[in-house]
Hints:
Layout: H1 7-17, E1 36-40, E2 52-60, E3 64-69, H2 70-74, H3 78-107, E4 121-126, E5 130-131, E6 135-136, E7 139-140, H4 149-172, H5 180-188, E8 197-201, H6 210-231, H7 237-250, H8 261-271, H9 284-301, H10 304-310, H11 316-327, H12 333-346, E9 350-351, E10 354-355, E11 374-378, E12 388-395, E13 403-407, E14 417-424, E15 430-439, E16 444-452, E17 456-462, E18 468-473, E19 476-477, E20 491-500, E21 506-511, E22 514-516, E23 522-528, E24 535-538, E25 541-542, E26 544-550, E27 553-557, E28 565-572, E29 578-588, E30 596-599, E31 605-609, E32 612-616, H13 619-624, E33 632-635, H14 637-642, E34 644-645, E35 648-651, E36 658-660, E37 665-668, H15 673-678, E38 687-689, H16 691-696, E39 698-699
Parallel strand pairs: 3-4, 4-8, 11-13, 22-29, 30-33, 32-34, 35-38, 37-39
Antiparallel strand pairs: 1-2, 2-3, 5-6, 7-8, 9-10, 12-20, 13-18, 14-17, 14-20, 15-16, 15-18, 15-19, 21-23, 23-27, 24-25, 24-28, 26-27, 28-29, 30-31, 31-32, 35-36, 36-37
Helix pairs in contact: 3-6, 4-5, 6-7, 7-9, 8-9, 10-11
Amino acid sequence: MKILNYQKRSARVILVLAFFLFGFAAIAPAVKAAEAATFLIDSSYDIRGRASITATSRVTGLNAYYFVDDFYWDSKNFQEQNDLIANITALANEFDNVIYPKMHEFYGEEWTPGIDGDKKIYILLTDIKNDASKGSYGGYFSTTNEYSKNLLDEYKQNQLEILEKEKKADLAAGKSIDFYAQKENEIRSIFTNEKELLYLNINFADKPNIKSFLAHEFQHMINWHQKAKIFNTNEEIWLNEALSEYAPTALGYDNIYKDSALESTVNNFNRNPSDSLTEWKNTNQDYSTVNIFMQFLVGRYGTGILRSITTTPKIGIAAVNDALQKIDPQASFSNVFSDWVVANYFNGQTIQNKKYGYANPNLNYENLHISATSSFMLYSNNMAKSSIAKSEENIKDWSGKWYQFISSPILSAPNQTLKISINANAGDSYFQAPYVIENIGGALTLNNFELRGNQNGNIYIDNFGTAVKSVTLMPISMRKISAFEGEQIPVKLFYTGSLILPNQPAIKSISPKTSALGNRTLVTIAGDNFAEGSIVRFGGVLATEINLIDSKTIIAKAPPFYKSGEVDVEIISPDLTVATAPKSFTYLAQTEDGSLIRADGDYKVYVVKGKYKRWIQTEKIFGFYNFRWSDIITITPETRDYYITSMLARADNDYKVYEIGSDGKKRHLSMSSAGFEASGRKWETIFIINDLEKNSYKTGAAIMK
Length: 705
């Protein structure tokens, strides 16, 4: 069932208004039974398209007034009105005794006494329409009701003046101005009732899920107070909705699974489990996805994480990370999301002594597990069937995909190796790719693979078809970590699964993976079935000093190269069989001493000297050298790692050498020149710093050896 939140439409209003509003609350008189009032409502959700209605207070609870749409009330006979009062009274008792105290415990508090100076909130039961494509709306919450009319009028006037200037500029430039009329109407239609107010669909008053709808919308009211009112920020929509979607479960309304809203959510999720968690299109699928993720998160870390998320000034992924750090310093959103993707496929099955599943017993394997996005059967005899699986996928950030490679039960040769090649074609891409190996006996082993930038990577699985039955790859794009408004742009991922047959050479790893253009770097290549007399090529250029250690290891010197970039590494056996690792080795352009570098996805900025780098720890130190942010060169993590980190420094015209710690302290290397060399330290690793930087560090204990 669709539960709609009005937060999205009013988010832009909050950003401007929350900064100015400090809560000058009026003193509101108590509401009496059968007292009528006029309420402004959202016409797009009203069954009759009304912008305002009259409603009468029919029930008053300890913590809320319950107003009923007069038009709806008058359309009912005496018995139906009595039944409605009984249902609202039951809802009021549930709110006072369960929803109100429990939501405070789990999520925090709403603004009280609020904009109207009344500790009680208003709950307006009105006739909300259905959406043919999305289902029934259970209710909504409009943040604009939390602002005064004067402030809102001032804001609207300001926005209309800005809009008029934009319209004149577009008109002068010959651009279309047709859409400005709609924009103007949207601004003029922003309203406030100057009350803490929730809207509920009165058509559900006699249904059990009315309690869930109320809890859902009440979380939005609490969330607005915790984020917008206190911290002057707005929670990202996906996480705000995730918190609201979990509220019925937290309150125990989903304990009976059969025919529950949670059962409907699970069934919906099973049908489309690859929906992005963070992209919000306001569809039923979006609500299902955020709900199921929250079931996993809270199931693992407990309900305490809910309040930690709502009471931090951070939002979105950063808010979840902040909450996780309070529980487990080793936990992170990316790791939890990765585990969630694994759990959705192997729900409840044991993997390396860890349980990848849901704590809620209703969310067991029978009820919740998804099928592979794609499955490939690989045969060793490619004359009979395909031995290569290829695919190209568009993957959105924070979505799950499951690709299964299955060994054919027939035509299997012994000692085969499955090679899975992965390539992302976007320079800013970042993938984590957990993969699970299922042995013939059913045992599961979880591994993880990481891919950054415009890179290739290979995974090798030995004994495929004999000891190993299948491999399931789950690539997750983690490129974007905030600002998820609007439709997200996917990243393209290419992957190939192929069989390496016995005696066929294969490259499995290369170390190091980088070399400066003019260098002859000694490279160790690990793999299988290397033969005496093999040759090695980097980007088509022959390597020198090739040394076959054994059938699994070759050491060779990479040749100097004529341009920077990624190249293929090849090993060609005497029988002309070839093992290729595409774009697996990078030639680096020489960086001038004193250059500033920062790896893509890393906040640390370094200054380089030769093959060494030194971390500029703070913005203050950055300013000591009149560096400019525009001077920073963004590089790949592999290029960053080519440079060796040095923590040694001395001030110009000062003989004392210090080790600069990440704790912001300098420690004098109190030793002779001979002792310095005997310790294994090198003179070329010492960076020259100015007195301003040297004096900015606190002094730590001297280093004697």
